[in-house]
Amino acid sequence: MPRWGPGEAGAQAADREARLGGIAGRVCREIARRTGKETRECVLGHLQRGGTPTNFDRALCTLFGTKAVELVADEKYGQMVAFAPPQMISVPIAAAIGRLRRVDLNGNLVRSARALGICLGD
């Protein structure tokens, strides 16, 4: 359900984009209402979902953002930013999604996942 920031109700809100989220509280209250049990919501923050960003993470995000802004400034729409070390490049979205990419079932990541007991659906 769309929410608006503090003090952005009514006509002011019509000029703003909706900020999505907040369903956890509604679900929590509904479960409590239906079960009569105490419930608590827990909203995971960025650090819990992905860990503490490293300096490389921050620099990489800056490079992605910079290239994206350059594409917009150059009116190059229908493109996505890709990291082709050591530089950022633009790739037509159709080219990025136009072919099936397969994972090597004997590759290091798949073998490591299986060694950890992760089910890959096979």
Describe the protein in words.
The chain is mostly helical and 122 residues long. It folds into 2 domains: 1-43, no CATH class; 50-122, no CATH class. It has helices at 11-14, 23-35, 46-50, 55-73, 93-97, 108-115, and strands at residues 79-84, 87-92. It has a two-stranded antiparallel sheet. The chain starts with 10 loop residues before the first helix and ends in a 7-residue tail after the last helix.
Strand percent estimate: 5-15%
> What is the molecular shape?
extended
Helix proportion: 40-55%
Give, in spatial order, the strands making up the sheet with the most strands: 1-2
What is Rg?
A: 22 Å
Class per helix and strand makeup:
mainly alpha
Largest sheet: 2 strands, antiparallel
Number of helices: 6
SSE string, helices as H and strands as E: HHHHEEHH
Contiguous low-pLDDT stretches (5 residues minimum) are: none
Rounded mean pLDDT is: 84
Distance linking N and C termini: 37 Å
- Give the beta-strand count: 2
